[in-house]
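Long-time lurker. I teach an intro course on protein structure, and each term I like to show students one example going from raw sequence to a predicted 3D structure in token notation. This year I'd like something fresh instead of my usual example. Would anyone be willing to generate the tokens for the chain below so I can use it in lecture? Attribution to the forum is fine with me.
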Amino acid sequence: MEESGGKKLIQDCIGYLNEMLDPDSGGNRALYPVITVFFGKESAEHFSTVRDTLDINWGKDTEFLKYVNIIKNENGFTCANLVTGEKSDEDPCAFVEKAVVRMLGEERAFPDKSRTRFEFILLGEDENATDYYNFMINMKLGSHYNVFKTMFIMMDEREADKRARIHQLLKYITEKRDETKNELGTVYLLSNYLKNGFVLQEHNLNLNYRLVADLILMGGNRGTDKTNNALSTVENYNTIKTAAYALVEKPVRGIAIFSLQRIMGYLMEENERIYHESAGDSMKSAERILDKLGIQRGKIHCLEEIFRENILKIFPSPQEIQYLAFLNEQEYKNVYKEKRISSQKLNRATGGNWNLFFEENYLNKIEELLADDHFMTDCLAKIEKSWRSVLSYGDALYGLEDSRVMESLENLSIASSVATGNTIEENIHLWAVEEARKQFYSHMIQLMSRLLSEIHQDAKKFVETYTQLQEKIGKEAVDDKEMNIQNYYERLAENFLRQDGGQISSAIFKLKNDEKAIIEALAAGFKKLISNQKNAPAYAIYKMSFEMESKTRLNTLSADQQTLMIQDTLEVDIKTMVRLHGSSSSYQNNIRGIYYLIKEDTEYAKGIPEGSQFHLNRTDCIEKIAIYDLDSPDQYCNLLEMVGEV
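-- Reply from a regular --
Happy to contribute to a lecture. Here you go:
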């Protein structure tokens, strides 16, 4: 699904921030081979979230992990390797088996190859959900390794028809529960409706897929859970589970959105301020625009240049006029006595030959040139380039609204040059050239008037597109306003633009820029902002880890206050963050464990209860996960109670 312009811009800027961030990550290793299977086309849209989370934590081992997409079609299944793009219509079990064998053949990875972990991700509302579930239950693989299976059923409960399909799948699982207990593995139900009533949607929906990646991590991470406590909590065969999840991280999304909002707002305000300050009153403004366009009394600069460089050469030379036939010698002498000659006298003296000569060698020549599409295209392109290079966004939007500008162009009275040749032939030639010039002007002014209207319309369209993009970005939800993110990063963005905003503005405020071009220019401007070296260390915060960014931004607070602020966020009632909202279930009493995924030697790790820390060598976030069994000790849970009503 293609992202809207605002979302794409935000994601691009988040990507730039993440590229700069060094989270001090990696150093952990995958204990077992892991193959993650995404069922259906829609689930694979979240592949990058799962993979990126594992990449950050498992470092170089992740190159050996396998990610497979299995899609049901009319003829069976199509399989794809989500990393390489390789596709196949062979039996899915055979496709998966090959992926497993490749992992087992890697000597440098996975200390324990006695087991292989299969992680299945299934959308509960998928129309083929029961077929995918049956595949997971019935898949036949080799016997030379142990298979451990976990299925994550992702449930989008925003619409009644989706809830109905989820009900259908859970009812099917319930009916097959006893006969499939030896093949079921562990099943997690993860809804986008939280216990506290909050609904995950849009970018927040990826939090559930990040949770999936963390549960995969906790089930097979070497060296970070010395007692193997997390593994026994995450995995239990023939068990239905759910989880609660809280995340505190460097607010890259908020940084991107608030910075972009200020960049767009400031540049628009600055362009308007500069225009109105320089424009003066409306009369002076019109004169200033006409001066920029080179429109003066009796002539237009760019037309004079084109006429001089491209048209004069098509006319005959003055020497050719001496061969003009006169009626008799006396008429010839009379003409040559005149210092100033009129067309009427010349035509009379030549018995009409002058008109024929003038039409054939001047008027027809200019008409042929004006009818030449290539010539006209080149002319207009040159004029347009010249005018667009001198007109600012404000000139085009506000200046061209003044009717005086257009009227001055359309009503231009073409000044006639005085013939100053040394001979009568030169004067006759200059007079003829001037008549052709008037015809050229008359034709071109109509086209130039149309061009000015197009430039004005481009400006109006530009500001409309720009404003719509601002609104799209403004509608993107940000949950971090309480941590002073907005004021801090808006101030940084504005300070940067005051010094280096000129180039960014000129790249964005091009009148022919469509939304795509504006987005590209804004993204490039944002990249310049976050990599700014002129005022380091002020801008070094963009590269900082989560802990350092918080301390720098909140430097008015004491270290203890900063730590308390972070810990208060983590100490929220985790029960409210459960990824289910079933009303009659009692799974809250069946909590299996609460874990903090956090680097053990950080300041904010102090005070975390012993046995609940799952050490990860990363400094860009803190994650808190609670794991629940939905089954009670003596009976299976009622799965249909875990989902909202149809």
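Some talking points for your students: The two ends are 27 Å apart (CA to CA). Residues 234 and 456 are 63 Å apart (CA to CA).
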